[in-house]
Design a protein that fits this description.
Elements (H helix, E strand, L loop, with lengths): L1 E2 L13 E6 L7 H14 L22 E6 L6 E5 L14 E2 L6 H17 L3 E9 L2 E12 L8 E8 L2 H21 L2
Antiparallel strand pairs: 1-2, 2-6, 3-4, 3-8, 4-5, 6-7, 7-8
Length: about 190
């Protein structure tokens, strides 16, 4: 289990507690099983498929829950090529940005740790994240699948996200968004 803990970052919003734990692939929810089965099919006998092997239209039923992260050899290492549109993300995650735009230092550290594990091992991961902020709790799962132009070395990560409880997701994200707006007003 990765325990990122609470991290304060001057100028960012008050931070949260984050815990992450790897889950077995047998626990992947149905929504993400489609992505995992597609990745396995495209991989075939190779270590991983390439980005060119992936057709977004094949994933259209869950495309709003899919993100695409580019792995770069230099800093900033991770570049958010496509952010999942259904996440309603107040953390600052956006298309065409790196992790520096993420408003929570703890969340930024958790994502970097998670993506680094995939980038360094070249292995897919399925993790559960628990975020706690101002009395609100959010639990979600993330499937991280490496992609590599040479089918061996990861240069991208295909991410699928799943939230079990839309009500807790909404309450948590609204609370974080309110805190972000207050912090932004203090610094503008």
């Amino acid at each position: 289990m990765i325990n990122v803990g609470a991290v304060e970052n001057p100028g960012s919003v008050p931070d949260m507690q984050i815990k992450a734990r790897e889950l077995p692939f047998s626990a992947v929810p149905e929504q993400l099983r489609l992505v995992y089965a597609y990745w396995l099919e495209k991989r075939g006998v190779r270590r991983m498929p390439s980005r060119a092997d992936i057709d977004p239209l094949d994933l259209r039923s869950i495309l709003g829950w899919i993100s695409l992260i580019e792995i770069r050899p230099t800093l900033p290492r991770f570049f958010i090529r496509v952010a999942a549109s259904n996440l309603n993300d107040p953390f600052g995650t956006q298309n065409g940005s790196d992790l520096s735009v993420i408003r929570s230092a703890a969340y930024r550290a958790a994502l970097e740790r998670h993506w680094t594990l995939v980038a360094e091992t070249g292995e897919p991961r399925f993790d559960e994240f628990t975020l706690e902020f101002q009395g609100y709790k959010l639990v979600y799962c993330r499937l991280a699948l490496p992609l590599g132009a040479d089918h061996s070395t990861p240069d991208m990560i295909l991410l699928g996200s799943h939230f079990d409880n839309p009500v807790s997701q909404k309450l948590f994200l609204e609370a974080f968004d309110r805190a972000s707006e207050k912090q932004d007003a203090r610094f503008s």
